Amino acid sequence: MTTPPTRWELAGEDNRGYGQHFADLVGRGVDVAGEARLADALVPRGARVVDIGSGMGRVAAALAARGHDVVATEPDPALRAQSLATYADLEVLPHEALALDPGELGTFDLAVLVGNVMIFLAEGTERSVLARVRDLLAPTGRALVGFHLQAVKAGSRTYPAAEFVADAESVGLRVVHRFGSYELHEPVDDYAVWVLARG
Ligand SMILES: C[S@@+](CC[C@H](N)C(=O)[O-])C[C@H]1O[C@@H](n2cnc3c(N)ncnc32)[C@H](O)[C@@H]1O
Predict the structure, then answer these.
(1) Which domain holds residue 159?
(2) Domain named Methyltransferase type: which ranges (predicted)?
């Protein structure tokens, strides 16, 4: 399947700092598992979790370390290489979101799209990706999605909260919660953490 280039891909070198930044933090023992702690709280023990756009692996590795069955998937080859270098035991698929096939992978208790994945998707694919997320969820499954609402990073888009909610609802997902952080602060204007469920 041919998919349009993602905003992440188009930004190219402008975003290369992300992976190294987190690898340096991990190397210094800094906690980079905030998103994973919230994800862990959303699922039963030993859950099936798919981390879409797993980047350098920090969230998927933290969830695997908590005993979950994690499918990590990252289309950027440089980030996959970095993930392997940092978390050698974490297998990472090369699929981009629209290439994830529930018929092949099964369904999940939780889909994770954190760290701005939604604002780096290919232009015009937001609803298709959200529809794919829906299809990857078990009937009681949920999605944890977090992103900056303004285009704060090179190549990213501005994605207003109301537009995101309309996109999610158009594909049969509903907003269960919106928070302002992974520590469940109340909603803020510049960043949103969403918990979505099927219809
Ligand atoms: C800032 S990185 C965040 C990585 C990781 N989720 C984290 O929080 O550390 C943004 C990621 O979005 C991914 N991405 C963008 N479009 C994607 C798509 N269509 N499918 C899968 N990943 C995508 C990029 O490859 C990149 O890894």
Answers:
(1) 7-198
(2) 50-142
We report the CATH number of the domain holding residue 30 as 3.40.50.150
Residues with CB under 6 A from ligand 1: 6, 8, 18, 52-55, 58-59, 74-76, 79, 96-97, 114-117, 120-121
Beta strands in the chain (DSSP E): 48-52, 69-73, 92-93, 108-113, 137-148, 173-179, 191-198
What is the count of structural domains for the chain? 1
Of all protein residues, the one whose alpha carbon is nearest to atom 24 of ligand 1 is 53
Classify residue 2: in a domain, yes or no: no
Q: Provide the 10 A C-beta neighbour count for residue 85.
A: 12
pLDDT, one tens digit per residue, over 124-163 is 999 999 999 999 999 999 999 999 999 877 889 999 999 9
Separate counts of helices (H) and strands (E) for the chain? 8, 7
d(CA 196, CA 33): 20
Full-model pTM: 0.97
